[in-house]
Amino acid sequence: MLLRRLLLILIVLPVSVGLVMLAVANRHPVELVLDPFAGAAGWALDAPLFLVVSGAMILGVVLGGVAMWFGQGRYRRLARHSAREARHAHAEAEALRAAATAPTARPALSDQRAA
Q1: What's the CA gap between 110 and 22, in Å, rounded?
Q2: Residue 52: CB partners within 8 Å, gap ≥ 6?
């Protein structure tokens, strides 16, 4: 709990203040041209600069997360395989424990001295 509060104070709070300052200082609209070959006659969007910057950061975080998710697919597959093997080994160990503690059928004792 202390680590979470420390993280909030040292990282999240200054970043939040910085983003609010960016939004207040850059409210003027800028032209975002989406087609570099057509120039201003192509696709263009007028938006406040802080929205453009914030949108670019959000898009970067989302694309980075997707790239990391695809990049770590083999490790998730290996973890699933290991978990499956562990479940099978646990079930086998339980079956062996049950077989070892179960009473076994022993032959009846007979008195061979009488014969």
Answers
A1: 96
A2: 30, 32
CB within 8 Å of 75: residues ≥ 6 apart: none
Is the pLDDT confidence value at 115 over 60? no
Residue 22 has pLDDT above 60, yes or no: yes
CA distances from 32 to 19, 28, 49, 58, 59 (A): 20, 13, 9, 17, 16
Q: What is the pLDDT of residues 24-48, one digit of tens each?
A: 888 888 888 888 787 667 788 888 8
Q: What is the pLDDT of residue 12?
A: 83
